[in-house]
Amino acid sequence: MVVLLDGATKRVVAGCEDGLYSLRGAVRVEVGGALAAGRGAGVGGVLAAGGRALLARGGALLHAGLLALGSALRRAPDLRAALPATLVPLPDSSPPHLLKGINSDSLDGPCAAVACGRRVFLLRYEAASSEFKIARSLTVDRPANSLLLTTKTLYIAGEKPLKLNLPSGALEAFGMEEPTIAAAAKKHSPPKAFLLIKEKPTEILLCYAECGVFVDENGKRTRNEDPKWSTAVYSWEFVNPFLYVIGDDKVTIVYLNDDAYRTPPCTCDTASLASTASECYLPEIFTLKLKEPVLLGTAPHGIIIRTKSESGYNVSIIEGMTAFRSVGASVESLATISDTRGSTTDLAQSPTDGTPQDISQESVEVTTGFLADIRKRARQLRNKHRKEQTPDDVIKEILTTEVDLKRTTNGRKSPATISEFDSDTESDDSEEKSESPKGPADLCAEMFTRQVRFQS
Q1: Which parts of the sequence belong to the CNH domain (predicted)?
Q2: Does the pLDDT value for residue 397 go beyond 50?
């Protein structure tokens, strides 16, 4: 079953084994005036693309008007809602198992990608003939696990990640210069999902069975650390700014801001509390214990899932912001989450794991907005400490880099007091000068003396 919460229709539509349904009841799908029933009526996928609705039904691909779909979804059960649809001819006997689309009426290039077995078709909608035409036909090394379509590029999760530049580029391997991606391909571990994190600049999360890799449009790493999870995870979805990781008995929500999984900038200030290169900013994580969750689709602010209960199945919407607010994390606190530093957390070993609970109950990590506010205050104090430098401190720092530094016995650096041009000075004076650090005026005088002697 697939659920779509479409922005154009503002309605929920569910594709089931016996047909198409709205929250009001069944919606009949008519192709050429004929009504399909029985096993051939099952709908396995629904999406909006090019201002139209695409449906994978009974091993075939259909398209219908979005306005007609919205009207059918609003009809009462007694009115026997019907949706007139048209067949999209595809030169492949394999049923479509993946659909991805771009819902834009003004898009000139391909607006939908359809995977049928090892074949992937790029479709373009022609308003003049009211038909979908095949723009490109591709053959990959295995049935695709995931598709990601943008206005400029198509990404395919085959045996290894693949990339196709639109409209006429060649199909090529993607991200193989990244060691993690290359190692996965060598071990025949195919990518499971492509997730678009940001459009400008492009950032993609490439999901594997046990970890993910953040890369740009050229396959180069964008974040220092990789998110990790257990092999029990089988679905991923991103609805800005939250990553949803769906496993056998839980849904993990990860707050992804610009700092998550990145190494903080290094500073040379010994008094600074900045982390070393071995540390990274950890994201905030919320874990919801559920029974056999299944990802059905996305909503404007979250995901739609199906869970098992004693009486059958339930369909629910999970929103990341609502989940974090339930434990006291404010929007401002979530913006400061990047102050959390440490080694990468394995989602499979999250301390939030507890006894299974009903969908109305939540199992969360003990990290609240109060702690996030403390981290924010600590960062403000560190920044204030770095900025509070007197003019003498600035001059001394500049001059210290000009004059040679020599390390004293206690391991700290102090300005050198004897240069190669001062060999005629008394040793006693040199010892006294080396014991007491010079001020900015003394350093200026010494530099001037050295320059005059060098020029003479």
Answers
A1: 110-258
A2: yes
- Mean pLDDT, to the nearest integer, of 279-298? 87
CA-CA-CA-CA torsion sign (384, 386, 387, 391)? positive
Query: Whose CA is closest to 247, among 229, 260, 234, 237?
Result: 234
Do 266 and 415 belong to one domain? Answer: no
Would you say residue 411 lies in a domain? Answer: yes
* 423 inside domain: yes
Cis omega before residue 191 (within 30°)? no
Residue 188 included in any domain = no
pLDDT at position 264 is 73
> What pLDDT does residue 67 have?
87
Residue 418 in domain: yes
Check whether residue 126 and residue 240 sit in a common domain: no
Residues 372 and 429 in one domain: no
Q: Are residues 249 and 275 in the same domain?
A: yes
pLDDT at 54 (0 to 100): 92
* Peptide bond connecting 95 to the previous residue in cis, omega within 30 degrees of 0: no
Q: What percent of the chain has pLDDT over 90?
A: 38
For position 25, what pLDDT does the model report?
85
What's the chain's average pLDDT?
76
Based on the fold, state whether residues 322 and 333 are members of the same structural domain.
yes
Give me the number of domains the chain comprises: 3
Q: Which of 22-26, 185-189, 241-245, 375-379 has the lowest mean pLDDT?
A: 375-379
Mean pLDDT of the region 276-297: 81
Chain position carrying tokens 């995977």: 115
Structural domain boundaries enclosing 306: 223-388
Residue finishing a domain among 344, 369, 388: 388
pLDDT beyond 50 at 274: no
Whether residues 262 and 304 fall in one domain = yes
Q: Do 399 and 312 have their domain in common?
A: no
